Amino acid sequence: MGTHRLQEALKQVREAIRAVDAVIDEMRAEHDALALHVFIARRNYRQSKDKKSGKRRDRTALLSFHKACALGFRDDLAEWSRLLGAVSKP
Length: 90
Known about the structure:
Low-confidence stretches: none
Strand content: under 5%
Order of helices and strands: HHHH
Mean pLDDT: 85
Structural class: mainly alpha
Helix content: over 70%
Radius of gyration: 23 Å
Number of strands: 0
Shape: rod-shaped
Number of helices: 4
Distance between the termini: 66 Å
Largest sheet: none
C-alpha cells in the first residue's frame, strides 16, 4: 500500500514538472516589448549627435518616453531620462 502511494506521488510530481517546463518554455518564447524598447532607446540616445542646446536629445527622450508609456511604462519622464542615461540619480 505504501509503494502505490509513493508511485502516485511520483507520477503527480512528474506531471507538475512537465507543466512547469511548459510554462518556462512559453515565457522564453515571449518577448518583452518594453525591455526591447528601453534597450533600443538607450542606444539611440547615446548615439544621437547634439549641439550645445541639447534639444535633439531632449526630443529623442520625449518621443521614446511616449512610446514607452504606450508599452506599459508607468513612471515619469524624469525616471525615463535616468534610464536612458540622460541624468544621474540624485
